[in-house]
Amino acid sequence: STDVIGSEEPSTPPPPTRSARDLDEEAPLPEIKAAVMAALAATLLPFPYADAALPFGAAARRRECSADMLLLVVASLHAFVAGLIEDFTKRVSVRMRLTATALSALAASALLGATLSDLDLWGVDALLAFVPFALLVTAVVVAGGSNAINIIDGFNGLSSSTIVIMAAGLAAVALRCGDNLVANLGVLCIGATLGFMALNYP
After folding, report:
1. Distance between CA 192 and CA 41 in Å, rounded?
2. How far apart are CA 137 and CA 161, in angstroms?
3. Alpha carbon 16 to chain centroid distance?
């Protein structure tokens, strides 16, 4: 046998570096579990006893909140379905998800009258009196806020803790202003997010 002096075994290239998001996409999808839990929780809203679980407001007002929450669930179906398909297939583009979220915002405007009418900005508030402009701003704000949360979702607990803090702040301000719907939504959002954090824990 002949050996070639100085010959070396071909080196094996190191494995490519993968980001946290790449690893998260390869892992099982706790988002799907959280989405299913959210859907199951949403089915409780139409029932008569659902209003009894709301922490704020008199009995009659809690019934109104329960009905408004059901409309909000219906309005959010565009964003919910787009996110669920993305979790399963990873083939829904960012543009499509933004569009779905904007459509949910417009649906909420139609069903609940949830349209931005005042931003306390000189000149802008006058433009918000023009309904098409107000609808456009509402859609952009909701879609942008949702996408902003998605951007900071690269580290475990970062987006969830941010949502809990924001929801607590909104609930506190809403309670002070007598807006029981937003206060109840804030508290429910905190509970749902804490449940998501438990499911999403590595």
Report:
1. 9
2. 27
3. 32
